[in-house]
Design a protein that fits this description.
It is built from three helices and eleven strands. It is an alpha+beta fold. The protein has a single domain, classed as Alpha-Beta Complex (Nucleoside Triphosphate Pyrophosphohydrolase). The strands form three sheets. Strands 1, 2, 3, 4, 7 and 8 form a six-stranded mixed sheet that branches. A three-stranded antiparallel sheet has the order 9-10-11. A two-stranded antiparallel ribbon has the order 5-6. A hairpin with a 5-residue loop joins strand 1 and strand 2. It is globular and about 45 Å long. The two termini are 21 Å apart.
Length: 162
C-alpha cells in the first residue's frame, strides 16, 4: 500500500517501512507496507489494507483506496505484488509491527518528488554481485528493486496530477 497522509503541519507524507533483518531475500530492505495473501482475504485490496494495518497500525476503515498500480513480479521471492494507492485524511499514529518492521519511514512528498533523490547505486544481493541499480535516496535509505520500480510509477502518476 502506497499510503499518503498529512502530517501535523499539513505536509503530505508517504509511508515506507524498513524490514527487520532475517534470513531471506528482502532482509533489511525498504518497502511498502504489505504482504502475503491469506486464505481468509476477500481480495487483493483487502490483503493490502490488512497488511498495512498489521505493519504500521493504520485501521483499514480509515484508508480510502484510490488507485491500483501495475502488478509486478519479484523473481528472488517468486511473488507477484499488486500495489494500491491509499489516502487518509488525518495524521496517523504509526505503530510498527514488532516482528516484521524495524522502522517506519515517513517520506515528505516534496523529497519524494525531488529529482535529486534519484540515484544509481552499486549493490551486492543474494543473487548478484556488484550490480548497478537505479534507486531513490529517501530519509537516508537507498530504496531499490521492486520498491523503486513501484515508486517510479507512483512518481510518474504524481507528476501528471500535480
Amino acid at each position: 500500500m502506497a499510503l499518503f497522509y498529512p502530517n501535523k503541519k499539513e505536509i503530505t507524507h508517504l509511508v515506507l517501512i524498513l524490514r527487520k533483518t532475517y534470513k531471506g531475500v528482502h532482509s533489511n530492505q525498504v518497502g511498502f507496507p504489505g504482504g502475503r495473501v491469506e486464505n481468509f482475504d476477500k481480495n487483493l485490496k483487502y490483503t493490502a489494507l490488512r497488511e498495512t494495518e498489521e505493519e504500521v497500525g493504520i485501521p483499514q476503515s480509515e484508508v480510502r483506496v484510490v488507485k491500483k498500480l501495475t502488478k509486478l513480479y519479484i523473481p528472488p521471492s517468486n511473488f507477484w505484488v499488486h500495489p494500491y494507492v491509499g489516502l487518509i485524511d488525518r495524521t496517523p499514529k504509526l505503530i510498527p509491527q514488532e516482528s516484521e518492521v524495524e522502522k517506519i519511514l515517513e517520506i515528505d512528498l516534496e523529497d519524494f518528488m525531488d529529482e535529486r533523490n534519484l540515484i544509481s547505486k552499486e549493490l551486492t544481493t543474494s543473487y548478484a554481485k556488484n550490480i548497478e541499480v537505479p534507486a531513490f535516496s529517501l530519509n537516508g535509505h537507498v530504496v531499490w528493486g521492486a520498491t523503486a520500480m513501484m515508486l517510479s510509477e507512483l512518481k510518474d502518476l504524481m507528476k501528471l496530477a500535480l
